[in-house]
Each structure stands twice: as C-alpha cells, then as structure tokens.
C-alpha cells in the first residue's frame, strides 16, 4: 500500500525516517482495528442521515468496512505496519476498496475524536470481559468455600495467630474484595460510555451531525458536553488502570497468602503440580511460580497507572501527542489482568487444603483467649479487667508450654473466682467459631447465609 500522510499537504519535505518510526503507533494501536471500523460505520450512518453522504455512498462504505473487518480477522488482509496509525490504515484500505468515495468518510471528524472513541469502545469491551472473569473467580471461591466448609483455620493479624475462623469465611473475604472490583469497573464503564464523536480536533464540527444518533448506534449512554474535554482527557483510561491496580492488589494478596500456606512451615495447602515449576539445580523443589508472577505483575500494572498519570499531569488543552502513550499502558494492563485472573481461577479449582494441619495450628497459640475474656465479662467482669486477667493466664500457660485449654479448673480459678466448670466449652475453637454467628461473622450459620447470598448475587 502506498503510504501518504493524511496531513501531508502543508509540508514541503518528506518526514525523517527515524521520526516516522518514532511517531508511528500502528505497531500497538492496530489492535483497535475493530473499534475503529465500528466507529467509522456509525460516523458514516450519521453523515448519510445529514445528507453529507448519499445513501449509495454510505452503503458502499459500510459494506467495504464490514468486509475489511472480516478480512482482517480471517487473515486475508494484513494490517500494514508502515501506516502511521490504525486510522490511517483503515482509511487507506477503504479508499483502495471504494475509491475516492472513501475519502469522504473523514468529513466532520478528526483523529482526535476518533481515537478517543476507539479507546472508549476498547475500554468498554475490556471492562466487560474483566467483569466476567472476576465473576468466574468469585464462583471458584464459592465452590472452594463450600467444598471446605467445616475446615477451621487460624485467623491472623500482624501475621501472628489471632482467632479461629472458618476457611470458608477467609475465602469469602476475597469474594467481597472482588465484588467491589467489579463495581469499580462498572462505575468506570458508565463514564467511559460517553460519545466524543463530533468534537473533531477540539472545537467541534461545522457540519450538522446527529451525535445522539451515533451514541445510540454505538450503545453509549450519552454524548460529551465539551469538545475540548472530549478529545483531551483520558481520565476514563486512568480510572480503568486504577480499577485494574486495585484488582491486582487483591490478587497479589491472595497469591501471597497461598504462597505462605504452601510452605513447609505452614503446610496448609498442596498446590497441584500443573500450576508449579521446579528448579534447574535442586531436584526436590516445587515452586509456586504462578502465584509469584501474579504478585510481581501487580507492580507492572501499578507502573502503567503512574506512567499515564505522569503523562497527563502537565498537558495544556487540548490534544497533545503525549497522549499516544495511553495505549501501550492500557493494552498491557488488559492483557496482564485477564491472564492473572484466569490463572488464579484455574488454580483455585484444583487447590487442596490440609485440614489436619490447619486444625493443629488452630489448637496452638491460645487462639481462644478472647473467648475466655468474653466469658469473664458475661460473669460480671469489666472487659478491661478480663483482658488483663486472661493475659496473665496466657503468660502462665506459655511458661509451662501448654495451651489455655490445658490449664486445670483450679489453676484458672487462681486468677479469678468468677471462673466455673462451664469455662471449658469457651476454650473449644469449634465453639469459638460457632459463637460468632452475627451478620458478617465467621460463625457457621453466618457463613452459610453469606454463601447463599453470594450465589444469588452471581446469578442476578
């Protein structure tokens, strides 16, 4: 395809070859071909409605654009990376198909509103895909929680054993995080779903254009209110990168926990061989590389957010070429997030929990100390006094290398005359969990209610 600049009329000299390569975005924005064609079809129909194009011209252009999309997807038509950008390629390919008529399509628009439209369409599609992937991961968490419902695990604060909780409750904490992640993407898509087409370069078009018609054609919720804002901001991309960063943070935290749990020191989980790798020198190794990569790729997504924030922070209105840097950050983030969620979801379906080892851990470390304090409060002590008494009892037991539950009634009564024979049931981790049945707690009945609600939420 003979390359000719869309803007070459004002220039006497050929652009420097190195500048051509430096300036070109086709090597990465070629993935916007479907969005560019979709937006061009909507623009064409709008031009036909306003009689800028005849019905015959519009029909020829639309047929050619639709055929072009099919040819690209089948591999019959290759995107020429000698083009400046995807918009140039699509227009030149169109002209080759329909002749001079194709040159009319750009009437009333600029690459500035065109690329903003393409990016909004891309963000919308990527956001919906990620929301679906998040939903599938939530389902995997629910199934894993149901499968291991009765398993009790130490809950931790400061990475120190704190109180016994249901493993299902622990897993459903990530369900809640992912639910908010889905909400963030949904909120982002509301603001991305605003049509910039008709804003042209920055001042709007002199042609009468039915922007509401184009918005409806493309499934957008509304049209932009200010042409300069429409072409010169990428806050909808930044929001997408932020939502992705928070999501990756949650995936990284889950990965970190499973990495810890899979160590010999914890031995809470067994990772399937299919999701681990080995060592080139140590034959015994079984490494959680998948989880470590998720943890590492989180920093990569954070970097894209910070990079684009930095790009945008000093730009005067309206469009500046700096904004071309939004695409690689967005595309790599989408690829990274989608891959990480898919991999973790598959792992969750295969992971095996060591209930015996978890039970052993629950029974070591005085995890029922708070229950004992609550027992004393029910007997009439103030909580502050009860807290101090139990602290002394823990110290007494620790000095003897035994658990609170192993203290005799006589030994416990030495700390408080409020203690009676019924104290023993307050030192059972299973009963400790069951007592916390209030809404949102780790009690068996509370978690059962939450599982049912979570299933309804995903079905709705």
Explain what this protein looks like in three dimensions:
The structure is a single chain. By secondary structure, the chain is mainly alpha-helical. The protein has three domains: 8-107, Fumarase C, Chain B, domain 1 (Orthogonal Bundle); 120-205 and 228-354, Fumarase/aspartase (Central domain) (Fumarase C, Chain A, domain 2, Up-down Bundle), CATH 1.20.200; 361-459, Fumarase/aspartase (C-terminal domain) (Ribonucleotide Reductase Protein R1, domain 1). The protein is built from 18 helices and six strands. The strands form three sheets. A two-stranded antiparallel sheet has the order 1-2. It is elongated, with a radius of gyration of 30 Å. The two termini are 50 Å apart. The mean pLDDT is 95.
């Amino acid at each position: 395809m003979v390359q000719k600049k869309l803007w070459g009329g004002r220039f006497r000299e050929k652009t420097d070859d190195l500048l051509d390569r430096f300036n070109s975005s086709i090597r990465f924005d070629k993935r916007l071909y479907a969005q560019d064609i979709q937006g061009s079809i909507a623009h064409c129909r709008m031009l036909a409605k306003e009689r800028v194009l005849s019905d015959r011209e519009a029909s020829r252009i639309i047929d050619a654009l639709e055929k072009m999309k099919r040819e690209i997807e089948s591999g019959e038509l290759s995107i020429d990376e000698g083009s400046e950008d995807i918009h140039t390629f699509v227009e030149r390919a169109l002209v080759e198909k329909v002749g001079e008529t194709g040159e009319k399509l750009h009437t009333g628009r600029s690459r500035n509103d065109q690329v903003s439209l393409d990016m909004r369409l891309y963000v919308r599609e990527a956001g919906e895909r990620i929301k679906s992937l998040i939903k599938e991961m939530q389902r995997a968490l629910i199934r894993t929680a149901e499968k291991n419902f009765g398993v009790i695990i130490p809950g931790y604060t400061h990475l120190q054993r704190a109180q016994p909780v249901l493993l299902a409750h622990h897993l459903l904490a990530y369900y809640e995080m992912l639910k908010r992640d889905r909400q963030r993407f949904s909120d982002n898509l509301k603001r991305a779903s605003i049509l910039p087409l008709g804003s042209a370069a920055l001042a709007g078009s002199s042609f009468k254009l039915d922007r509401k018609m184009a918005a409806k054609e493309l499934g957008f919720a509304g049209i932009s209110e200010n042409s300069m804002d429409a072409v010169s901001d990428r806050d909808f991309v930044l929001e997408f990168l932020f939502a992705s960063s928070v999501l990756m943070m949650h995936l990284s935290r889950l990965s970190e926990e499973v990495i810890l749990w899979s160590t010999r020191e914890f031995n809470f989980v067994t990772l399937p061989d299919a999701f681990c790798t080995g060592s080139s020198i140590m034959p015994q190794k079984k490494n959680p590389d998948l989880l470590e990569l998720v943890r590492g790729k989180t920093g990569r997504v954070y970097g894209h957010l910070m990079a684009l924030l930095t790009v945008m922070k000093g730009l005067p209105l309206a469009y500046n070429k700096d904004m071309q840097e939004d695409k690689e950050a967005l595309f790599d983030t989408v690829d990274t997030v989608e891959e990480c969620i898919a991999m973790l979801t598959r792992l969750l379906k295969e992971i095996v929990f060591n209930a015996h080892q978890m039970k052993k851990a629950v029974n070591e470390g005085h995890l029922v100390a708070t229950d004992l304090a609550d027992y004393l409060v029910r007997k009439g002590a103030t909580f502050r006094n009860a807290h101090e008494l139990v602290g002394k009892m823990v110290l007494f037991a620790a000095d003897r290398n035994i658990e609170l539950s192993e203290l005799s009634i006589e030994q416990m009564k030495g700390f408080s005359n409020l203690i009676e024979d019924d104290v023993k049931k307050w030192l059972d981790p299973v009963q400790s969990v069951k007592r916390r049945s209030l809404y949102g707690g780790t009690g068996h009945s509370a978690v059962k209610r939450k599982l049912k609600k979570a299933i309804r939420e995903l079905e709705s």
